[in-house]
Amino acid sequence: MARRIHRSALSALTGLAGLSGLAVLLTLIAAAPVRSAPPPRTVSAWLPYWGQEAAYRDALAHAAQIRTISPFWYETRSATGVVGHPGAGEQRIIKGLRAKGIQVVPTVNEQMKPGALAAVLTSPAQRAAHVKALLAVVNSRAYDGLDLDYESIAPTPEAKYPAVRAGYAAFVTDLCARLHALRKQCFVTVTPKTRTTGRIWDYRKLGAAADRMRIMAYNMHYAQGAPGPLSTPQWYDEILARATAEVPRAKLEMGLPAYGWDWAVGSKARARHLTSTEAEALRRKVKAPYALDPASHTPHFTYKDGGTRRTVWYQDARGTAAHLPVLRKYGVPHTVVWALGFERPELWPTLAAG
C-alpha cells in the first residue's frame, strides 16, 4: 500500500544527515495514514446441469472474472440420500474450470416433502448422518467445497420455526467445521431477510460458520404470484441493511438474476420462465419498445399472444448497473449470478465496472 508523506515534512529533513535523518524519515513513514484500496469485486455463478455444455463454455469465456463456479449437481432426498443430477461430477468440467483458476464448489439442493427436511434438522442423529453423506460427496471429486441451497424449510409454521431455525444453524456449523478440517470451503445459500421474510435463517450463526453466505436477491415477484420486477434497489437496500448488520461484508455474495418471468395478465397460471437472452429475443420478436421501469430500474414489456395479453419482467445489464450502487453503499463486493448461460454478453463488462 502506498504511504504518503507531506512535502513540508520531507523538506524538514534537508539538513539532517546520517542515522538521525533516517530515523526521522522512518518515524514519518510509520505515522503516515494508509489509504486502503476498495475490496476487489468478484463474480461467482451457478452452472445449471440442464444447460451444462453451454454454461461451461460461458464460464471458460469469462474465466478472468470468475472466482467460483457452483455446478447445480446434487440433490438431497433424505438424511443419507444425496443423488447426482444428470452430468454431475463430470471430471472434464471440473478439471477445465480448475485449470483456469476457478474454484469448483458444487451446489446441493433439496426438494423434500413438507416437514421432511425439518425432521432431519431437528434430530441430532439425522443431522450427523446427513453431514456424513455430504462429506462423501465433497470427497468424491477434486471439489473445493460445497454450497447448500436448502429452501423447503422457508415456510415452516410459526410454532415450529424456532426449532428448525436452530437445527439448521447447528447443522451448517457442524458441516462447515468438518469441511474446514478437510481444507474445503463451506457456502450457504439463503433467501433475503426483510421485515416480512427470511425468519428461518439465523444469519449471525450461518455467517459465523460459513465462508460465503449467498443471498438470492431475486424473485421479489415470482412465477405463482402477481407480475412485477424480480428486484428493486429499495429492496436491495433493505436486504443489505439487515445482512451487513449480522454477517461480515466479506462473506456476503449478493445473488443477481439473469432471467425473468412471462405472466398472462389477469390469470393465476404459473408464469413462464425466460432467460435474459430469451426475454430480449422475445421483446424484439413482438416489436415491444425497450423500457426500464423507473421505480425498479428493471426492463419490462407487454405483448399479445393470440387473445391473451402477457407481461414480461426480467433483468439485464442496464438494470443490474442501476442495482450495483446499493452493493457499493454497503461495502459488499461479491456477487453470484443465477445462472450461467442465461445472461446477455453485456452483463460481464457491467459487473467488471462494478
Report on this model:
Helix content is 37%, strand content 22%. It has 354 residues and is an alpha/beta fold. Strand 12 (300-305) and strand 13 form a beta hairpin. The protein is globular and about 55 Å long. The model is unreliable at 1-39 (pLDDT under 50).
Main traits of this protein?
TIM Barrel, globular, 14 strands, disordered N terminus, 354 residues, 12 helices, alpha/beta, eight-stranded parallel β-barrel, four-stranded antiparallel β-sheet
What is the gist of this entry?
By secondary structure, this protein is an alpha/beta fold.
Instruction: Give the percentage of residues in beta strands.
Output: 15-25%
Distance between the termini: 22 Å
What is the C-level CATH assignment?
Alpha Beta
SS-derived structural category:
alpha/beta
In the residues, how many domains can be counted?
1
Overall 3D form: globular
Low-confidence stretches: 1-39
Topology pattern, helix = H, strand = E: HHEHEEHEEHHEHEHEHEEEHEEHEH
CATH superfamily caption:
Glycosidases
| Main beta-sheet strand count, sense and barrel state | 8 strands, parallel, barrel
- How would you name the oligomeric state of the polypeptide chains in this document? single chain
Assigned CATH architecture? Alpha-Beta Barrel
> What's the tally of helices?
12
Strand arrangement, major sheet: 1-2-5-6-7-8-9-14
